[in-house]
Every structure is written in C-alpha cells, then in structure tokens.
Amino acid sequence: MTPEEILAADRAHVWHPYTALPSANQPYVVSSAEGVRLRLADGRELVDGMSSWWAAIHGYRHPVLDAAVTDQLGRMSHVMFGGLTHEPAVQLARTLVELAPEGLEHVFLADSGSVSVEVAMKMCLQYQRAIGRPQRRRLATWRGGYHGDTFHPMSVCDPEGGMHHLWGDVLPRQVFAPVPPGGFADPPDEAYVAALVDAVERHADELAAVIVEPVVQGAGGMRFHHPGYLRVLREVTQAHGVLLIFDEIATGFGRTGTMFAAEHAGVAPDVMCVGKALTGGYLTLAATLCTPEIARGISATGVLAHGPTFMGNPLACAVANASLGLLRAGDWAGQVARVGAGLRAGLEPLRGTPGVTDVRVLGAIGVVQLDHEVDLGAATAAAIDRGVWLRPFRDLIYTMPPYVTDDADLARIAAGVAAAVAAG
Ligand code: PLP
After folding, report:
1. Of 36, 100, 306, 392, whose CB neighbour count within 10 A is largest?
2. Is residue 66 marked as binding?
3. Quick check: is 60 catalytic?
4. Annotation marks residue 18 as catalytic
5. Location of each CATH 3.40.640.10 domain in the chain
6. To 10 degrees, what angle do helices 292-301 and 113-130 make?
7. Confidence check on the interface: ipTM exceeds 0.85, yes or no
8. For the segment 221-241, what is each residue's pLDDT rounded down to a tens digit?
9. Of 48, 247, 270, 409, which residue is the catalytic one?
10. Which fold has domain 3-61+331-423?
C-alpha cells in the first residue's frame, strides 16, 4: 500500500488510542524501526523519545531479541497454558522472582498491563475472602495515578481529573488520598503522611489492598514523589492487614535508576505488576507477582479464576528472557544514569522559558511541564521537524528514551522537546 492508501484506510476503519473517529490529528505512517530510530514512510528518520511508551528499552531490531523470537518461532509460537507448561515461561518466572523485591515468589503471566492489574486486584480480594474478611473489597490509592483502561484498574485512576472521569458514576467506589506532594528529592510532608495514614486506617475494615505506582506516577501526570511515602504505606498496610500492590508496569526494569522503583524505598509489596519493558517492547506480556502467603490463602479455598487464552505465550516469554538477559549481562544502571545526565543537560535550560512551569528528570525520564494544555498536533510536528518522536499529553512534554540512546541522540531529543515547547 502507498502511504496515502494506508492513511485513507486508517481514517476509514482504525481506532487509535484515546481518539475520536475521525481523529483530529492524522497519525504518521511508520514503515520500520531499528536501533533508536523510527523510519516514516516518507523516509524521515526519527529518534524515538518514547521507547514506544516505556517499552523498547534496548531499541528496535536488537539482534539478540530478534534471534530469541526467531529461535522460539522454530519451536512453537503458542500453546495453551492450561495443563501445559514450557521452558520459556518457567525460566521467565524464575528470573522475575530472582530480580523482584524479596518475598515475591509466585508469578501469574498476563497479556497486558491492565490485565496484570486486574489479576493483582482479584488476588487481593480473593485472599481477604479466603482468610475470612469478605467485607474487605475496596481498594485505596492516591489521586493522580494511572493503572490501565479496563474497568477495575480504571476505578483506581483519578476519578475526577484523570482520563477516566467519564466513568465516575459506574466504577466501583474506591478510597482516595490526595496526590503525594513535592518531588523525588523533597522530604515527605508530615501533614500529608498523617492524611495518608488516616485514609488507610479509617477504611481498613473495608480495604483489600492499597495500590500505587511507586515513585513515578506516569500517565496520570508524570509526577515523581519521595520514596518515603512508600515506607509509610508499607507500615500502615502491614499494621492493618491491608495488602500492598506496587504497579511497576512503567517503572520496572531500570527506568527510574533501580531495577524496580520499590528499591528506592527499600520496601517490598505483597503484589507487584510488571509489563511494558518486560519483553524489551517486542511482544505484549505482563506479569503479576505475589507472596506465598497470598498464594496459600487463595489456594486453600479454591482456584485463582483467571486464564487468558494467550497466557504465557512462548514467543513473548522467550523474548522477555532475552531482554532480561541483556539487562543482567550489561550495565543498565550506567546506561540509565548516562541517559538521565543527557536529559538533565538538555532539558534544564528550558527552565525559565515562557510557559514552562517545571523541568524534572529521574532515571531515564525527562519531563517538561507547561502552564497550558499542549497543542498535540503542533508540538508533535515541531519535534518531528527536529527528527524526534514525542507524544505529549495534557500540559506535559516528556521523554523516556531507550537506554541505548547515545549522547548525540539525547541532545537531538532535547532539541525536539524544546521545539515542541515552543510550538505547543
Ligand atoms: N499501569 C501503569 C503504571 C501504566 O503506565 C500502564 C500503561 O501505561 C498500565 C498500567 C496499563 O498497561 P497496558 O497499557 O499494557 O494495559
């Protein structure tokens, strides 16, 4: 198909994320991707500032990851996971348990981040029921979070300001504390800590679990918060028999400078969700990890009633194993620190630019916040003119490049962000 034919068919039939039909902004046709570059159908090459939404940490067409998929394709691409098991899935579960914070020993392989959050919630409700607390079926969280687009995860996104405000009257009513104040380096605010503890204590008798994104709130606002808040949550949940879920779908596998963001706080959750970079962005796969106590509790009274058709897909597990192998064998921490330094050098000068209210960098994540809603079409086009792919939202222009992005391409991304700020 020609690029024009692709666009015409796209416009006629295809629904893209968070768009109306027809979409206000026409998508760009991408024809291939290699290293940190996306190649558009018109020949333009863009440095990917988004890692395809946090996922492509090693870049595209990585020879080790390509080989893992090809090799697995030669054995089996998919088999059902009910009653069958295979080496790629077992190896992946073992590696995840080795890498994860202490105490998480059982792994449920899901097919997307949202589903892994559904499974986490189901585990917690079912565990509370199993140990004789059926009334504990609500979740608590802080505002400004994002945990996915299926119904139960939507209920713990911010029901007022968030993407799912449309559904406020339909979703299960959960318990919300305010957004954590301050940034990553700002010490915990005492009044906030008291309110957080109070929210959990007041509702403890009806809470199955607290769920949060540790340290970085991603799609809900790209906020960074002090790890001390996680320690507070760990203590108060433990004291009241409430489970703690960390959603590490965006933050997992090194993005914030530690393998998992929980490590900044030195605490372990009872349940953890991972996805996105799990397969290096190659195939759709996510996982929910839990403690033996939860697994035992649930299993004493029945089964965990969840079983996606594509659970434990061998191709996805094989490429996840290869991606985690690359991470473990390489200097991912050094790469993330270098990307962070490049983003800091490139983005800090934007502080003070008219319209810019904040610039923040943590790990390999850079965020520029504006005092107005970004003009998505104009900002994206301006970045593309600089040879950079970005996807701003609301008042945020942000980037989380592949860990393998070199210094010259980091400078190019920063120039793309600056151009988007000026245009958007
Ligand atoms: N949780 C977090 C923290 C996320 O950032 C996302 C996706 O952006 C999700 C859950 C949902 O994952 P998925 O889009 O794979 O369903």
Report:
1. 36
2. no
3. no
4. yes
5. 75-329
6. 70
7. yes
8. 999 999 999 999 999 999 999
9. 247
10. Aspartate Aminotransferase, domain 1 (3.90.1150)
